[in-house]
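Progress note, sequence design subtask.
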Protein backbone atom coordinates (compact mmCIF):
# COMPACT_ATOMS: atom_id res chain seq x y z
CA UNK A 1 0.00 0.00 0.00
CA UNK A 2 1.48 3.36 -1.02
CA UNK A 3 1.93 6.33 1.29
CA UNK A 4 0.19 8.54 -1.32
CA UNK A 5 2.31 11.60 -0.47
CA UNK A 6 2.48 13.79 -3.58
CA UNK A 7 5.89 13.62 -5.24
CA UNK A 8 7.26 15.91 -7.93
CA UNK A 9 9.51 15.23 -10.92
CA UNK A 10 12.39 17.18 -9.32
CA UNK A 11 12.60 14.57 -6.54
CA UNK A 12 10.91 16.66 -3.85
CA UNK A 13 7.66 15.83 -2.08
CA UNK A 14 4.73 17.82 -0.71
CA UNK A 15 5.32 17.00 2.94
CA UNK A 16 6.82 18.81 5.92
CA UNK A 17 7.48 17.48 9.40
CA UNK A 18 8.77 19.28 12.49
CA UNK A 19 11.92 17.76 14.01
CA UNK A 20 11.23 14.11 13.14
CA UNK A 21 11.24 12.31 9.81
CA UNK A 22 8.15 10.30 8.85
CA UNK A 23 8.28 6.58 8.09
CA UNK A 24 8.22 7.19 4.32
CA UNK A 25 11.34 9.43 4.54
CA UNK A 26 9.87 11.94 2.08
CA UNK A 27 9.63 15.72 2.22
CA UNK A 28 11.40 18.19 4.49
CA UNK A 29 12.19 17.88 8.19
CA UNK A 30 12.43 21.26 9.91
CA UNK A 31 14.66 22.15 12.82
CA UNK A 32 12.04 23.16 15.36
CA UNK A 33 8.36 24.01 15.21
CA UNK A 34 6.74 25.50 12.12
CA UNK A 35 4.42 28.46 11.73
CA UNK A 36 1.35 28.12 9.50
CA UNK A 37 3.10 30.06 6.74
CA UNK A 38 6.21 27.86 6.95
CA UNK A 39 4.16 24.66 6.89
CA UNK A 40 2.29 25.86 3.79
CA UNK A 41 5.46 26.90 1.98
CA UNK A 42 7.62 23.90 2.86
CA UNK A 43 4.88 21.39 2.05
CA UNK A 44 4.12 23.14 -1.28
CA UNK A 45 0.52 23.88 -0.28
CA UNK A 46 0.48 27.63 -0.99
CA UNK A 47 -1.00 29.36 -4.03
CA UNK A 48 -3.05 26.51 -5.43
CA UNK A 49 -6.09 28.70 -6.14
CA UNK A 50 -8.49 25.75 -6.16
CA UNK A 51 -11.36 26.68 -8.47
CA UNK A 52 -14.32 25.35 -10.41
CA UNK A 53 -14.25 24.94 -14.19
CA UNK A 54 -17.23 24.25 -16.47
CA UNK A 55 -17.41 20.56 -17.30
CA UNK A 56 -17.95 19.32 -20.83
CA UNK A 57 -17.94 15.92 -22.48
CA UNK A 58 -16.97 15.14 -26.06
CA UNK A 59 -19.08 12.95 -28.30
CA UNK A 60 -17.16 11.33 -31.11
CA UNK A 61 -19.10 10.15 -34.18
CA UNK A 62 -18.41 9.51 -37.83
CA UNK A 63 -19.36 13.14 -38.47
CA UNK A 64 -16.72 14.48 -36.10
CA UNK A 65 -16.62 15.62 -32.46
CA UNK A 66 -19.31 17.49 -30.55
CA UNK A 67 -18.75 19.16 -27.16
CA UNK A 68 -21.58 18.51 -24.70
CA UNK A 69 -22.02 20.65 -21.59
CA UNK A 70 -22.45 18.65 -18.35
CA UNK A 71 -25.09 20.65 -16.49
CA UNK A 72 -24.83 21.19 -12.73
CA UNK A 73 -21.37 19.65 -12.57
CA UNK A 74 -17.89 21.19 -12.50
CA UNK A 75 -14.28 20.12 -12.47
CA UNK A 76 -12.19 21.20 -9.50
CA UNK A 77 -8.76 22.38 -10.53
CA UNK A 78 -5.62 23.89 -9.02
CA UNK A 79 -2.53 25.68 -10.17
CA UNK A 80 0.18 23.04 -9.88
CA UNK A 81 2.78 24.16 -7.29
CA UNK A 82 5.72 23.18 -9.50
CA UNK A 83 4.67 23.55 -13.14
CA UNK A 84 2.18 26.41 -12.73
CA UNK A 85 -0.19 24.58 -15.06
CA UNK A 86 -3.89 23.99 -14.42
CA UNK A 87 -4.50 20.51 -13.07
CA UNK A 88 -7.92 18.89 -12.73
CA UNK A 89 -8.56 17.24 -9.37
CA UNK A 90 -12.14 15.96 -9.39
CA UNK A 91 -15.77 16.40 -10.37
CA UNK A 92 -18.29 18.08 -8.06
CA UNK A 93 -21.85 19.37 -8.05
CA UNK A 94 -23.08 22.93 -8.39
CA UNK A 95 -23.32 23.50 -4.61
CA UNK A 96 -19.64 22.73 -4.02
CA UNK A 97 -17.43 25.61 -2.87
CA UNK A 98 -13.67 25.10 -2.51
CA UNK A 99 -11.93 25.65 0.82
CA UNK A 100 -8.46 26.97 0.01
CA UNK A 101 -5.37 25.60 1.73
CA UNK A 102 -4.74 29.10 3.04
CA UNK A 103 -8.15 29.10 4.77
CA UNK A 104 -7.33 25.67 6.16
CA UNK A 105 -4.08 26.98 7.67
CA UNK A 106 -5.64 30.26 8.82
CA UNK A 107 -8.21 28.37 10.87
CA UNK A 108 -5.52 26.30 12.61
CA UNK A 109 -3.45 29.44 13.13
CA UNK A 110 -6.27 30.89 15.23
CA UNK A 111 -6.13 27.82 17.43
CA UNK A 112 -2.35 28.02 17.64
CA UNK A 113 -2.49 31.65 18.80
CA UNK A 114 -4.92 30.79 21.57
CA UNK A 115 -3.58 27.45 22.75
CA UNK A 116 0.18 27.61 22.23
CA UNK A 117 0.05 24.67 19.83
CA UNK A 118 2.59 24.42 17.03
CA UNK A 119 2.41 22.96 13.53
CA UNK A 120 3.74 19.42 13.40
CA UNK A 121 3.10 18.10 9.87
CA UNK A 122 1.61 19.24 6.57
CA UNK A 123 1.24 17.57 3.24
CA UNK A 124 -0.59 16.75 0.04
CA UNK A 125 -1.96 13.32 -0.81
CA UNK A 126 -3.09 11.70 -4.06
CA UNK A 127 -1.64 14.39 -6.32
CA UNK A 128 -3.35 17.26 -4.55
CA UNK A 129 -6.76 15.70 -4.08
CA UNK A 130 -6.41 15.74 -0.30
CA UNK A 131 -4.34 17.87 2.06
CA UNK A 132 -3.69 17.75 5.79
CA UNK A 133 -2.18 19.87 8.55
CA UNK A 134 -1.58 18.77 12.12
CA UNK A 135 -0.72 20.69 15.28
CA UNK A 136 0.68 19.39 18.54
CA UNK A 137 -0.94 20.78 21.66
CA UNK A 138 1.44 22.04 24.37
CA UNK A 139 0.10 19.88 27.19
CA UNK A 140 0.86 16.19 27.68
CA UNK A 141 -1.64 13.88 29.32
CA UNK A 142 -0.17 11.49 31.87
CA UNK A 143 -2.07 8.27 32.43
CA UNK A 144 -1.28 6.27 35.55
CA UNK A 145 1.68 8.43 36.41
CA UNK A 146 3.96 7.03 33.71
CA UNK A 147 2.10 6.68 30.39
CA UNK A 148 2.48 9.92 28.42
CA UNK A 149 -0.08 10.77 25.74
CA UNK A 150 0.28 13.77 23.42
CA UNK A 151 -2.73 15.56 22.02
CA UNK A 152 -2.92 16.62 18.38
CA UNK A 153 -5.38 18.58 16.25
CA UNK A 154 -5.44 17.24 12.70
CA UNK A 155 -7.31 19.00 9.91
CA UNK A 156 -7.85 17.37 6.52
CA UNK A 157 -9.54 18.65 3.40
CA UNK A 158 -10.28 17.22 -0.03
CA UNK A 159 -10.31 19.14 -3.29
CA UNK A 160 -11.99 16.45 -5.38
CA UNK A 161 -15.34 16.29 -3.60
CA UNK A 162 -14.37 13.08 -1.83
CA UNK A 163 -14.73 14.34 1.73
CA UNK A 164 -15.56 17.37 3.83
CA UNK A 165 -13.18 19.67 5.67
CA UNK A 166 -12.66 17.76 8.92
CA UNK A 167 -10.93 18.63 12.18
CA UNK A 168 -10.07 15.79 14.54
CA UNK A 169 -8.72 15.81 18.08
CA UNK A 170 -6.35 12.86 18.37
CA UNK A 171 -4.43 11.56 21.38
CA UNK A 172 -1.30 9.68 20.27
CA UNK A 173 0.54 7.28 22.56
CA UNK A 174 4.22 8.21 22.44
CA UNK A 175 5.82 4.79 22.92
CA UNK A 176 4.33 3.18 19.85
CA UNK A 177 2.52 5.99 18.01
CA UNK A 178 -0.87 4.32 18.18
CA UNK A 179 -3.67 6.56 17.02
CA UNK A 180 -6.06 6.40 19.93
CA UNK A 181 -9.17 8.09 18.63
CA UNK A 182 -11.79 7.29 21.19
CA UNK A 183 -15.51 7.95 21.37
CA UNK A 184 -15.51 9.82 24.68
CA UNK A 185 -19.02 10.39 25.99
CA UNK A 186 -19.81 14.07 26.40
CA UNK A 187 -16.71 15.32 24.58
CA UNK A 188 -16.42 15.96 20.85
CA UNK A 189 -13.44 14.62 18.97
CA UNK A 190 -14.25 15.88 15.47
CA UNK A 191 -15.94 18.67 13.53
CA UNK A 192 -17.04 18.50 9.90
CA UNK A 193 -17.51 21.40 7.47
CA UNK A 194 -19.28 20.71 4.17
CA UNK A 195 -18.07 22.34 0.96
CA UNK A 196 -21.09 24.59 0.52
CA UNK A 197 -21.63 28.34 0.31
CA UNK A 198 -21.64 28.64 4.12
CA UNK A 199 -18.40 26.74 4.58
CA UNK A 200 -16.35 29.80 5.54
CA UNK A 201 -18.76 30.82 8.28
CA UNK A 202 -18.88 27.27 9.61
CA UNK A 203 -15.09 27.16 9.77
CA UNK A 204 -15.37 30.16 12.07
CA UNK A 205 -17.95 28.24 14.12
CA UNK A 206 -15.61 25.27 14.30
CA UNK A 207 -13.17 27.42 16.24
CA UNK A 208 -15.76 27.68 18.97
CA UNK A 209 -16.61 23.99 18.74
CA UNK A 210 -12.97 23.07 19.16
CA UNK A 211 -12.97 24.91 22.43
CA UNK A 212 -14.18 21.49 23.54
CA UNK A 213 -10.70 20.16 22.75
CA UNK A 214 -9.67 20.71 26.33
CA UNK A 215 -12.87 19.16 27.63
CA UNK A 216 -12.12 16.15 25.44
CA UNK A 217 -8.58 15.94 26.81
CA UNK A 218 -9.79 16.12 30.39
CA UNK A 219 -12.46 13.47 29.81
CA UNK A 220 -10.02 11.19 27.99
CA UNK A 221 -7.54 11.49 30.85
CA UNK A 222 -10.21 10.75 33.47
CA UNK A 223 -11.55 7.75 31.55
CA UNK A 224 -8.07 6.35 30.91
CA UNK A 225 -7.23 6.78 34.60
CA UNK A 226 -10.31 4.76 35.57
CA UNK A 227 -9.25 2.09 33.07
CA UNK A 228 -5.75 1.90 34.52
CA UNK A 229 -7.16 1.49 38.00
CA UNK A 230 -9.48 -1.34 36.93
CA UNK A 231 -8.18 -4.88 36.56
CA UNK A 232 -8.97 -6.91 33.46
CA UNK A 233 -8.92 -10.68 33.38
CA UNK A 234 -7.70 -12.50 30.30
CA UNK A 235 -11.17 -13.98 29.85
CA UNK A 236 -12.68 -10.47 29.75
CA UNK A 237 -10.25 -9.42 27.05
CA UNK A 238 -11.09 -12.55 25.07
CA UNK A 239 -14.79 -11.63 25.20
CA UNK A 240 -13.95 -8.19 23.77
CA UNK A 241 -11.89 -9.76 20.97
CA UNK A 242 -14.75 -12.12 20.11
CA UNK A 243 -17.16 -9.20 19.90
CA UNK A 244 -14.80 -7.11 17.74
CA UNK A 245 -13.99 -10.02 15.40
CA UNK A 246 -16.98 -12.39 15.66
CA UNK A 247 -16.75 -15.92 14.30
CA UNK A 248 -19.83 -18.08 13.74
CA UNK A 249 -20.07 -21.84 14.15
CA UNK A 250 -20.54 -22.34 10.40
CA UNK A 251 -17.70 -20.00 9.37
CA UNK A 252 -14.84 -21.38 7.30
CA UNK A 253 -11.92 -23.22 8.95
CA UNK A 254 -9.62 -20.45 7.71
CA UNK A 255 -11.61 -17.75 9.51
CA UNK A 256 -11.57 -19.80 12.69
CA UNK A 257 -7.81 -20.29 12.36
CA UNK A 258 -7.34 -16.54 11.86
CA UNK A 259 -9.35 -15.91 15.02
CA UNK A 260 -7.19 -18.30 17.05
CA UNK A 261 -4.01 -16.68 15.74
CA UNK A 262 -5.41 -13.19 16.42
CA UNK A 263 -6.25 -14.11 19.99
CA UNK A 264 -2.82 -15.67 20.56
CA UNK A 265 -1.18 -12.44 19.41
CA UNK A 266 -3.41 -10.07 21.38
CA UNK A 267 -3.18 -12.13 24.57
CA UNK A 268 0.60 -12.19 24.23
CA UNK A 269 0.67 -8.40 23.85
CA UNK A 270 -1.56 -8.06 26.90
CA UNK A 271 0.55 -10.36 29.07
CA UNK A 272 4.10 -9.87 27.82
CA UNK A 273 4.59 -6.78 25.59
CA UNK A 274 7.05 -4.18 26.80
CA UNK A 275 4.54 -1.48 25.88
CA UNK A 276 2.35 -2.78 28.72
CA UNK A 277 5.00 -2.32 31.43
CA UNK A 278 3.51 -0.50 34.39
CA UNK A 279 -0.08 -1.03 33.24
CA UNK A 280 -0.18 -4.79 32.83
CA UNK A 281 -3.37 -6.54 33.82
CA UNK A 282 -5.54 -3.42 33.57
CA UNK A 283 -8.35 -2.41 31.21
CA UNK A 284 -6.05 0.31 29.85
CA UNK A 285 -3.51 -2.41 29.00
CA UNK A 286 -6.27 -4.40 27.32
CA UNK A 287 -7.26 -1.43 25.18
CA UNK A 288 -3.64 -0.72 24.25
CA UNK A 289 -3.08 -4.38 23.30
CA UNK A 290 -6.07 -4.14 20.95
CA UNK A 291 -4.89 -0.89 19.33
CA UNK A 292 -1.32 -2.09 19.02
CA UNK A 293 -2.56 -5.20 17.25
CA UNK A 294 -4.95 -3.30 14.98
CA UNK A 295 -2.40 -0.71 13.90
CA UNK A 296 0.95 -2.48 13.94
CA UNK A 297 0.60 -6.27 14.13
CA UNK A 298 -2.51 -7.33 12.20
CA UNK A 299 -1.69 -8.99 8.85
CA UNK A 300 -0.99 -6.52 6.05
CA UNK A 301 -0.76 -6.85 2.30
CA UNK A 302 2.65 -6.90 0.69
CA UNK A 303 5.21 -9.31 -0.70
CA UNK A 304 8.17 -8.08 1.34
CA UNK A 305 8.58 -7.08 4.98
CA UNK A 306 9.13 -3.47 3.85
CA UNK A 307 5.86 -3.45 1.90
CA UNK A 308 3.99 -4.92 4.86
CA UNK A 309 5.54 -2.34 7.20
CA UNK A 310 4.50 0.44 4.82
CA UNK A 311 0.95 -0.94 4.70
CA UNK A 312 0.78 -0.97 8.49
CA UNK A 313 2.09 2.59 8.67
CA UNK A 314 -0.49 3.67 6.12
CA UNK A 315 -3.13 2.03 8.30
CA UNK A 316 -2.19 4.40 11.12
CA UNK A 317 -1.99 7.48 8.88
CA UNK A 318 -5.27 6.82 7.09
CA UNK A 319 -7.15 5.95 10.27
CA UNK A 320 -8.33 2.69 8.71
CA UNK A 321 -8.68 1.12 12.16
CA UNK A 322 -10.35 4.11 13.82
CA UNK A 323 -13.84 2.62 13.94
CA UNK A 324 -12.49 -0.60 15.39
CA UNK A 325 -10.53 1.30 18.04
CA UNK A 326 -13.55 3.37 19.03
CA UNK A 327 -15.52 0.17 19.56
CA UNK A 328 -12.60 -1.31 21.49
CA UNK A 329 -12.52 1.77 23.72
CA UNK A 330 -16.25 1.53 24.40
CA UNK A 331 -15.92 -2.16 25.31
CA UNK A 332 -12.94 -1.70 27.65
CA UNK A 333 -13.72 1.68 29.25
CA UNK A 334 -15.21 1.93 32.73
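Output:
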Amino acid sequence: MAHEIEQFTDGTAAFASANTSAWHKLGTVTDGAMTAEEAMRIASLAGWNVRLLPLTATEITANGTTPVEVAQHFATARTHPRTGRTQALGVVGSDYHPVQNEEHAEFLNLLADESGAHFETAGSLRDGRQVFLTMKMPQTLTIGGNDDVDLYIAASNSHDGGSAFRIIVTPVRVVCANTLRAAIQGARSSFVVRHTAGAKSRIAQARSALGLTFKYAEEFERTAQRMIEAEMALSELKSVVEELWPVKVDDSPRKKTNQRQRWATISSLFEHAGTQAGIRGTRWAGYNALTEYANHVAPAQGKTDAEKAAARAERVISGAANELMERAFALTAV
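Residues 141 and 149 are 5 Å apart (CA to CA). Work on this subtask will continue into the next period as scheduled.
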